[in-house]
Each structure stands twice: as C-alpha cells, then as structure tokens.
Design goal:
Blueprint (H helix, E strand, L loop, with lengths): L12 H26 L15 H25 L10 H22 L8 H4 L6 H24 L2 H6 L1 H27 L12 H24 L6 H33 L4 H12 L3 H22 L4 H15 L1 H7 L13 H4 L13 H31 L6
Length: about 400
C-alpha cells in the first residue's frame, strides 16, 4: 500500500467534540422517552393489532446495515480483490458494533419486560426463532468485539494474530447470513400474516442487507479512509461505487419479482398489504423517500458522476436514508389490516388500542433518537481512542 501521499484524518479534536455533543444531546432528549417506557410502561402508539412499529423497523434497519456491511467488506476484499480496504477494518468493525448495540437497545425497548432478557440465556427455548435471534446476536457481538480487540492492541498485534483475525472473519460470515435469515424467518413463519408468510422473505432480507451494507461501506471509505489523497483511495471508491450500482439494480429486480408474485394472484390477504404500501396513508414514504430519493437519485449520481467522490458519497448517503423506509414498509403494512375472515374485528370491541391505524408517537421517536445517539457516541469515542491510535502507527509523523 502506497502511503506516501496519504492525508489521514487524525487529531480532529473539533470533530470529536462536535459529534460527541450531538450524540449526548440526542441521548439526553431521548432519555425522556426511555424513562416513559421503563417507568410508565408507555409503548407509544402501538396497538393490540399493530404490536410492531417504529422500534422493530429501526432494529431491522440497523441489523441489516451492520451485517450487510461486514458481509460486503469480506467479499470485496477476498473475492473482488479490492486493495486499500484492509486499513479500514477497525472502522468497519467499530461501526458494526455501534449499530448492533443500538439495534439491541431498540428491540429491548419494544419488549414488554426488557429486564427479563436474561431468561433467553438461563431458560432458552430453542424451538423459538426469537431465542435463536438473541443467541446469534450475542455470538456475533463477541466475534466483532474479538476482531476489534486485536486492532485496539496495535499494528503488531494485528500482524501476530493475523490467523485469528482470518478465522474470526470467516466465522462471522455464516453467522451473519444465519442471523439475517433468522430475522427474515421470524417474519416468514407467521402464518397468520400472509404478506410475510413466504419462503422468499429471508432471501429478500439478505439481498437488502448486503446492498445497504455495501452503500454504508462505501460511505465509510469516503469519509474515514486514512489513505485519502492517494490514487488508490480514488480507485477503491470507484470500484465500490460500481459494485454498489450493480447491487442496487439487483435489489430492484428482486423486489419487482417479489411484487409480481404477490400482486398477480390477487389474493386479498396479499394484495391489501401491497395496496397499503403503494397507496396507503404513508404512500410518500415509498414513492418519495425510498424510490425517488433513495433509488432514482443515487442511481443517477452513480451513473452520470461515477468519477466524482462527492457524488458517490452523496449517492450512498441518500440510499441509506431512503433505505430506512424498507423495513417500515414491510413490517407495518403487514399488520395494519385484519386477517381474512376477521374483517369485523375492529368493530367488535371499542378501545383506543383496538385499531389497525398506527403512526409512531413522540415516545417512539425519542427512544429511536436515544438509540442513534448511543450508536454515534460509541463510534465517535471508539474512533478517537481506538481507531486513531492504530492508524497513527502507519502515519507516525501526522
């Protein structure tokens, strides 16, 4: 790796202070919602008929990002032979851990009794996919932590323990794939929800995860790669952008194929959820945020400005922003209508919690704000005190 012209982003005290303040402010504001959940038992606008909402969507989004990023990082290094990414390893693992911890926090707030999580370890029911999800998350977190530990110990530690790092990397891949498949399966096995009940759902989750993770990996390279200023830095960005462009196209084909399979038979239990996604109360979330901002604009930037680093970074950022709507538009519409034969359920009893109408409340937004603030704080502090010392060993004069 030619580091002669590199301009690493180190000793950025102002940036560290700025993002630390943003993270702390987000956590302080979000703690109001966390308090209401833990003390008052306030679960926002969730209803008896729509028990999963913003929190589960945020959890799925974060898990997709971090697992997809690890998978794509492994593939582009090992099989696409993209050089210049190895030095990004601690940044990638740190970002993945930050996202995973935020995801676990968010789903923990969704539980009716979050402090009973330990029972999944002390009294596991391995016939439950939820139990497998918790155990897989725990193992995956230890794998990522183990990889990051060697980088925290320094460049010499990485060289001495290269075999262990390779082993952990190879182990993380099947665990990541199984974890994504498990989350897809958790939805796919619910027979009472025909919109989810499909064997293709785990595969759809896997494709969505890898494409989104590749976008995040590309964005992290542009923002944090220590080889900034070199030709290799540009070449890596161009290569990642090309792969990302192809990934988006693949994702579009997969989604369209799935939509045709759902719509063509005109089965009411399937088509109603699809109608809610496309033309329901939150139609703008898919047409404007996801498709227009999150797909069309990034594709245009990646095609017409493929040699512009700012355009590539903007395309990745916009795709991730638009991607936030994907789990929302899978989870909520799958719940927001009565099952076949139970169309009169909402009229049978009258209570504000007995409704299919759902929109995230202030408490839910506050909890998500806390979770994202927590992820930002972990990444900011970790980058300052773990990643920077490692990178400085390559650039002692900086």
């Amino acid at each position: 790796m030619n580091l002669k012209d590199a301009k690493p982003r180190l000793n950025r005290k102002k940036e560290f202070f700025f993002f630390s303040v943003i993270a702390i402010v987000a956590m302080v504001a979000g703690s109001i919602g966390v308090y209401q959940v833990l003390v008052d038992g306030n679960h926002g606008a969730l209803t008896n008929f729509v028990p999963w909402g913003l929190w589960v969507s945020a959890y799925v989004f974060l898990v997709w990002l971090e697992v997809g990023m690890i998978l794509s990082f492994f593939v582009v290094r090992r099989y696409f032979k993209i050089e210049g990414l190895d030095i990004m390893a601690p940044v990638v693992y740190l970002a993945a851990i930050a996202a995973l911890i935020a995801a676990l926090f968010t789903i923990g707030m969704d539980l009716g009794h979050p402090f009973r999580f330990y029972k999944a370890y002390t009294s596991p029911q391995f016939g439950s996919m939820m139990t497998w999800m918790i155990w897989l998350h725990t193992i995956y977190l230890f794998i990522l932590g183990g990889e990051l530990f060697f980088y925290w110990k320094g460049k010499d530690s990485v060289k001495r323990n290269k075999k262990w790092l390779d082993r952990l990397a190879y182990i993380s891949i099947p665990f990541g794939i199984i974890l994504i498949g498990n989350i897809g399966g958790l939805f796919g096995v619910i027979a009472a929800r025909p919109f989810w009940n499909a064997s293709v759902l785990p595969l759809m989750f896997f494709i969505a995860s890898v494409v989104a993770g590749l976008g995040l990996l590309t964005l992290l390279h542009i923002l944090f790669s220590p080889i900034t200023g070199t030709q290799q830095y540009k070449d890596v960005a161009y290569d990642l952008a090309r792969i990302f462009f192809g990934g988006i196209i693949l994702g579009i084909i997969a989604v369209m194929a799935n939509a045709v399979v759902i719509a063509y038979p005109s089965i009411p239990a399937h088509s109603e959820a699809l109608r809610l996604i496309l033309f329901g109360p939150y139609w703008w979330s898919i047409w404007i945020i996801h498709i227009a901002i999150g797909i069309i604009v990034p594709l245009a930037l990646l095609y017409f400005a493929r040699k512009n680093l700012f355009a590539i970074g903007s395309a990745c950022f916009l795709y991730i922003v638009g991607f936030t709507m994907v789990p929302v538009n899978i989870i909520i519409p799958g719940l927001a209508y009565p099952s076949v034969g139970l169309e009169g359920l909402q009229q049978s009893f009258h209570h504000y919690k007995l409704t299919f109408e759902y929109g995230p409340s202030g408490v839910e937004w506050l909890v998500v704000t806390f979770a994202f603030g927590l992820a930002l704080l972990i990444f900011t502090v970790g980058y300052r005190y773990l990643v920077e010392p490692y990178i400085k060993e390559y650039f002692p004069r900086v």
